[in-house]
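Components:
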Amino acid sequence: MQTLPGFREFYPDTCARRNYILETWRGVARRYGFVEYDGAVVEPLGLYEKKSGGELVGQMFTVAAMAEPGEIKGALRPEMTPTLARMVAAREREFRKPMKWFSVPNCFRHERQQRGRLREFYQLNVDIIGEQSGAADAELVAVLVDTLRAFGLAENEFVVRLSSRSAWQSFFRENAKRADGAALTDEDEYAFFQIVDKAERASAEKTNAALVPFGLDAERVLAFMRSKVPSVDLAPVMADLTARGLGGFVEVDYAIVRGLAYYTGVVFEVFDRAKTERAMAGGGRYDGLLALMSDGKVNLPALGFGMGDVVLEKVIESLPAAKARMEAWCAAQRACEVFVVVAKEELRPQALSLVQQLRDAGRRVDFALTEAKVGKQFQAAEALGARYAVLVGEEWPQVKVKTLATREEQLVSHEAAAALLG
Amino acid sequence: MQTLPGFREFYPDTCARRNYILETWRGVARRYGFVEYDGAVVEPLGLYEKKSGGELVGQMFTVAAMAEPGEIKGALRPEMTPTLARMVAAREREFRKPMKWFSVPNCFRHERQQRGRLREFYQLNVDIIGEQSGAADAELVAVLVDTLRAFGLAENEFVVRLSSRSAWQSFFRENAKRADGAALTDEDEYAFFQIVDKAERASAEKTNAALVPFGLDAERVLAFMRSKVPSVDLAPVMADLTARGLGGFVEVDYAIVRGLAYYTGVVFEVFDRAKTERAMAGGGRYDGLLALMSDGKVNLPALGFGMGDVVLEKVIESLPAAKARMEAWCAAQRACEVFVVVAKEELRPQALSLVQQLRDAGRRVDFALTEAKVGKQFQAAEALGARYAVLVGEEWPQVKVKTLATREEQLVSHEAAAALLG
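Structure:
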C-alpha cells in the first residue's frame, strides 16, 4: 500500500525540509508587508473553466462524494490565481489598496511524471492588487529576489529574466499584417506569443512557417527577442530595482513570454544560472483577470508570481551553501534542548515535575518514559541533539546539569536547574 | 462563484487565526519532543477500507483525473491514522522507539452540515509508537493538556475525561452471557461498546432492550459507568499526571468509550467545562492497528489523539482571556514594524535603498509604492500597525525616526536610522 504516483509523503526529515521552504517563504513575504490568505483545497470546477485559456483544465483532478458517485462536487485546485481573483472580487472594498497578499497552498495537477514535476506540490503565491504603476512590478520582483536570497542563493546562482507582453504586443501590432488583409485579433496575438515562446528551441524554418500568416519572419522576431533594451514599461522597473541594490539579479530577456493567456504587461521567470533545472518561479501582470472573473464588476490592475517547492528544493540541494543553511535549520527544529535523565527510578515523580516546569518555561524537553540504564539515557539525549542533560539521581534535591557538547557539569539544586534552563 | 458547501476560504483575518492554531499546536508538540511528519492529501482508497470498522468510508471524497473520468484515483484523507500506520509500518526500523510523531493535516469528510462540523478541517495528530507502558499514555495526555493551556484555557475551562476500553472489556467478559450460550465474540464486544457509548443519552428501556442479548441490564452498566475508581491501567496514568502537577485537568469517566473500533486500552475525550460544544479532542491506545495495517509484519503498541480546529476555535472565541491571546498573536503577525515615508519624491531612490537595508536586516517594512501626501502615508503606517515611521525628506541625508505610539521623534543620519532599526 504505497502513496499514489506523483504524491509525496513526508517523513520527519523531508517534512522539516518542506517546513523550511514554507517558513522561509512566509518570513520574506511578511518582511515585505504581504499578508497571508488561503482558499479551499477543493473548489467549484467552474472557477477554472471561466478563466480565459483554461490551460490547466485538462490536468485537473475532480472530486466526488463516495456516497453520491458520478456527481462531481469540485476540483482540487491546480493553481491559486482563480481563487485569489474570486476572493478579491467578492470583498475588495474592505481592503486598502494596494493589497499585498501571499499564500503557500498545495496545488494538484494530473501531469505526466517527469523531473521537477509532481502531482501535488506547494506553491508560494505573491500578488499585488490595485496598483498600476511599475513600482508594484519592482516590489514584486524584489520580494522574489529576496525570497531566493533567503535560501542562501547568491547573485551568481540565479537570475530573474524580465520581459514585457506589452512590448511584444507593440512589436506585433507594428509589424504584423495578416495575409488575408483582415484586422489582427486577440487570438492572433496569443497565437503569436505561443510562437515566440517556442522560437528559441524551434528551427528557423519551423518558426518562419508559423509566422507566415502574420507576414513576419524568424529573423525579425529573433532580433527583437535578443535586444536587451528595456521597453518603456521595463525601464522604470529596472531603475527601481537598481536603487534597491538588486539590479544584479535581473536582466531584460524578451525570450520570456509566459504560457498563460491572462498576462498583460511585465512578465518574468527565474532560473538557476547553471540552467540545469526548469524555471524556479514565474509571473507578471494580469490586469484584465479580475474583471474577467467578476463579469466586469471589479476592475483592478494586478500582478503576481508563483514559486513551486519541487524545483526550488532541487536547486537548493545542488548548491552547497544553500544546502548547509537548510540542513542547519532542520537540525535546529528537530533538536531537543534538555534531556532529563532519571538515574533513580524512585525519583521519577520528581523528575516528571522538573520536566513539566521546563516545558512550561517553553523549553523542548524529553526523557525516557520507562526505566533505562543511565548510559542508554545519555545516548538518547545525544541522538536527539540535546544541548543539556539534567541528571536526577542520588544527589537529590540537587541535580547534575551537564552541557553535552563540552561535557561541563554543575551540581545545583533542582529549583536552580529549573531557573537556569527554564 | 462561491466556495463549495462546508469548505472554507481564509481571508487574512481568518488565515491568521488558523495559523495561530497550527503554530500553537506545533510549538507544544515540539516542546514535548515530538517531530512533525505529513502524508499525501490524496491516498489510495484501499488504505481506508483496510482498517477494521471502516466507519469513515461512507463519508469519503473520491478523486479522479479530468482526463480519465470514471476511473477513481484515490480519496481525500478523512483522517491521519491510516497514513501514519502505513508510514510507520514501512520504515519503523529506521527510528528509535518510542517514536513521538505529530502532524497537522487538513482532512476531508462528506458530512451533513452542522454546528462544529465542516467538510475540510485541520486536525492535530499526536502519536507515540512502540511503548507499552502507561507512562506513554500519561505523556500523551500531558501534551494534550498543555496544548489547550497554550491557548490560554484554564483548569476550570476544560477537562480530559479518561476511560479504559480494557476496563470495559473486563466488565463485559466477567458479566455478559449470551442468551444462546455461545462464546462472546469481538463483534459482541464492539456492539456492547456502541451501547455504552449511547447509554448516557438513551432511555433505560432502550439500553435494557439492547443489553438483553448479553444478559446485562442498564442498572449494572450505568453503575460501572458512574464509578470513579481508576482501573488497573488508569491508576498509573493518573499518578504520573499528578506528579507533573496536571492531575486537576483529568478525571476518570467510564462514559467515554470512543466510536472507532480500533481502540484497545486507555481512551479519552476533552470537553469544555461548560459543555456547550462537542468534544475538542479524543484518542487512546490502538495497539493492534499497526499489525492489522501491515498484515502482521509490524506489531508495535501505539496510541494517539486528534484535535480538530473547528470546535477548538469556537471554544477559544467563547473564553475572553483565550480570545484576547489569539487576537494579540494575530495582530503581532500582521503588523508592519517600520513604515518608510517618502516626503520628497526625488528622494525615492534613497528611500528604496533604506527600505532594502531594513528588510535585509530582517525588519518588516512597508512604504507607499507611488507618490502620496505625507499625511496619507502616515495614515497607511497607522493602519498597518507600524511601530516606527522613518521620514525621508528635506533633512536628507538625515531622516526623522518617529515612534508612532508615543509620537517621539529623532533626527538622525540615514545610516544611523538603518543601524537603529535594523
